[in-house]
Amino acid sequence: MDPQPNFDQFCLKRILMNDTERKMIAVEGNFKGLPEPAVVVMEKYAFDEASVLNVCNAQTKLKKNLDNDVYKSFSCVPQYDENIPSNKMDLIYPATDKHILKFSSQPIYCVQETEEMYQTITLHHILDNSLSLQWVYNCLEYKSEKERITYDTASENQKDDEDNGFLLLPDLKWSGKLNELYLLAIIKKRNIKSLRDLTTDHLPLLKNILNKGSAAIYKLYGVQQSQLRTYVHYQPSFYHFHVHFTYLMHTPPGINVGKAHLLTTIINNIEMQGNYYQKATLDYFIKESDPLFNRFEEKGILSKAKLIDEINNV
């Protein structure tokens, strides 16, 4: 066969794999007139830093998908074909130092947070440095993103909706493609900051999210509960309790050890010991310039200099 085959003659048979994390797809097919099968693997290049400003240049139109408080999301659509979004762009404006930190590349450290560390260090940090939750309250009060809410427990007239209710809506990172499914369940109660606050009293809420959320996703998208990864982040990106639902075939950021805790495991732990998450030592990763890192460093728990010494002694 010609060393440079004519792809105009390529006949697609089936998609073998669509890796949403690597932005790679593999397909099987054959070239007309040739019996042997062929596998074609396509992968998107990483962004060229020098060309970032051209992503939304004069040849591209912005289509707004979301506008809630400081958060906006757009599809970048080339003018030559308005049916094909080329990139997704999120805008945070005005951005705080906390926002800038979240998206900055930095050295990362592992924290083993004990009950005492949480009470004396982390909790004070949360109360002093949390991001604004106005965008969350806008959703809960139907002031923003009303059209994006895919499920509301209030629609089923639950008597305990204020205590055990939640909204289900797409995460900003979801492109809308089914194989990248990503939704958030945001609770209606406003006094649960994170995993650390959960006790036996919250089991009805957690089970409601697991069962009602999974049922709603199956009804809307045909994805079964056994095909979902349902988890909670610790530390979370914002301190109003919420649960992540992602498709198992998709591998978004934040699903690894040191960040994600499966909701079923959380429920089982609390059923075994009601105050499990008040007493447990929780491991998580933290960036070097995070203000929480500075608090741990001041207490002698983490140290940049200590890490450098350990590396030099390897």
Automatic annotation (TrEMBL):
Chief location of this protein within or outside the cell: nucleus
Key word Membrane present: no
Cellular compartment(s): Nucleus
Keywords annotated in UniProt: Hydrolase, mRNA processing, Nucleus
Active site annotation, chain numbering: 242
GO molecular function terms noted in the UniProt entry: 5'-(N(7)-methyl 5'-triphosphoguanosine)-[mRNA] diphosphatase activity; RNA 7-methylguanosine cap binding
EC class: hydrolase
Reactions listed under catalytic activity: a 5'-end (N(7)-methyl 5'-triphosphoguanosine)-ribonucleoside in mRNA + H2O = N(7)-methyl-GMP + a 5'-end diphospho-ribonucleoside in mRNA + 2 H(+)
Alphabetical list of SUPFAM superfamilies matching this protein: HIT-like, mRNA decapping enzyme DcpS N-terminal domain
Family: Belongs to the HIT family.
Function of the protein: Decapping scavenger enzyme that catalyzes the cleavage of a residual cap structure following the degradation of mRNAs by the 3'->5' exosome-mediated mRNA decay pathway.
Name of this protein: m7GpppX diphosphatase
Natural source organism: Acyrthosiphon pisum (Pea aphid)
